[in-house]
Amino acid sequence: xxxxxxxxxxARSDGPLAGGFVGTANIVTAxxxxxxxxxxxxxxQEKLFAKALAELxxxxxxxxxxxxxxxxxxxxxTAPSESADPQIHLSEKATFVGLVFDERTLSxxxxxxxxxxxxxxxxxxxxxxxxxxxxxxxxxxxxxFDPANGATINFTxxxxxxxxxxxxxAAVQKLLVGKSKKDFQGLMSSIPSVEKASVIIKPFWVxxxxxxxxxIKIIKTL
Length: 222
Description:
Blueprint: H1 5-8, E1 26-27, H2 30-55, E2 63-78, E3 82-83, E4 91-102, H3 103-114, E5 123-124, E6 132-135, E7 155-158, E8 164-165, H4 169-176, H5 184-188
């Protein structure tokens, strides 16, 4: 208004105007938007990680996830660039992808790689789930990743860990039932996964094990 254009330039709408608002618009800066997206992404991933862990079967196998082995793919975060509302509502839609491990299978693979004479006997690694997980080919987890394609996934695990050969408590109890105390060491030496064993029988004058397996208590020490 106040210029020649005001009387010479005309604009008409083909239909009624709708939407919009009168007043000051709140605008989100690119920096603020990216920061909000990163926070939302992290919160969503943590929430889905906890949900996935809770839904994993525990019997007969113990399945688990490493935190650095989960991803959000097909990730789409949306937010209006401006709004009359003082709060900008940001939403995110993504597909959760997690690398699920079978505790027994992974333990066996680690032992085979580190113990040449491993005979396949049951083992467990107490620190297995706390080892540091690192994915070698992270670039495959992009917007187009499809776990159904069966691609090879390379990763490394690092950190201190003990490999412990499992002992079947029930089998040991059955082995000792009714046996003489003097035969204890010979009996225990027949179990490959037992390095050292000691026995206490009460009262002290009794020289043989109980005839009931439930009375024989097995205590394991590392």
